[in-house]
Amino acid sequence: MHKSDRLFQLVNLLKGRRLAITAKQLAERFEVSERTIYRDIESLQSSGLPIFGEAGIGYIIHDHPLPPMMFSLDELTALLLGSKMVSAWTDPTLSGHAKAAMEKIEAVLPSQLKQQSEYSPYLVASFNHGAKQQAFSALLRDAINANYCVKLQYQDANNAQSLRTIEPLGMVYWGGKWTLVAYCQLRNDYREFRLDRMLDLTATTIPFATNTNKNLEHYVALVRAKYADQS
């Protein structure tokens, strides 16, 4: 666990307790040494967190706004809106992480700001991203991370169907539709595939390699150059 993650979880743990907890208990909880916990506590206290207690007795956070986690309403709106988008428009795993992130943010908010955040004017609809697209999204995310080819049955805008082996490079959200950017082995070139037009998707164990002329950044550079020439 990274130090930043441990500090964040440490704050949440102390914030949620009514009674003090010792450094030994914290060390066992986070699987680190007591010395590490002492350093973490000192670091948090020096940043302004109201942590009370001492070694051998225990630590607790009094009910008080936490300075490092203070957000303006606009900052909070941006963070929560982004998390809601990820929650609504990606696969269940990423959605779960987004919801967990929102809970962590809301857990350390002062009550006044928490009340304001509950009345956001933004609504994120998820009805265009069904279970099938979510499953495809999860499969593609794993394939992109592992650099494995996938077999795709696809139906284009003219209802023509094709079966291809593709090398998935990344996914782009175009405000309503997810599009997969991939290198198509049938065409030996970049192709874009909308998730809502995918009929079937199968993972393989066939690896592929990227290079300077075959990766997501290269594709984006080509697109930018194309539109620059047209302007």
Automatic annotation (TrEMBL):
The keyword DNA-binding applies. It comes from the Bacteria. GO terms for molecular function: DNA binding. Keywords: DNA-binding. Residues 6-60 form the Helix-turn-helix type domain. Residues 138-202 form the WYL domain. Gene3D superfamilies: Winged helix-like DNA-binding domain superfamily/Winged helix DNA-binding domain. This is DNA-binding transcriptional regulator.
